Amino acid sequence: MVGAAVLVPVLLSSDEPAKAEDDGTAPDLSAVESWEDLSVLHTEDDVDYPQVPPAGGPHDPRWLECGVYDAPVRDEHAVHSLEHGTVWLTHDADLPDEQVEALAELLPDNGILSPYDGLPSPVVVTVWGRQLALDDADDPRLALFLEEYGNGETAPEPFASCAGGVTDPGGEPGRPV
Fold first, then answer.
1. Structural domain includes residue 11
2. Which is deepest, 23, 69, 94, 153, by most CB within 10 Å?
3. Binned average pLDDT, 10 residues per bin, the chain of 177 residues
4. In this structure, is residue 141 part of a structural domain?
5. Cα dihedral sign, 4-9-13-18
């Protein structure tokens, strides 16, 4: 636990002041959306998820390999990885390259980074049952979210990992870079 106490201030420090909320308060996780009792059913069918990107629910029996992807990935594979405790960072396809690179540097070992069409904000960070829309890769709430939820504790199978998953499901876009 001492490592976390040292790591958080380091992650939150920068040459620029942390972005404050519109009312002048320090950034926090009050905007995190939560969903409980998400299905863990396996299906090979496409699923119409209620969240964008999905934060859990029925998913493909095969999970997605950890890593950075340069094209959208199949939701059903990524959701299975979320079930394993993975962090899924999604970004608008038009996000500048330096922002994507910054996200890749922040990506945990048990994480997936991919572009995603139709996001409600430029960057969205998701774990099983929790999600936060972010302004950009420099949003200080990302480090707070990763500290609070990045260890897989919300997932049904928190220590299963995304290692060993599919990397190019069905020949569709989504090869890791």
1. no
2. 69
3. 41 39 76 97 96 97 95 96 97 97 96 96 98 96 96 92 81 56
4. yes
5. positive
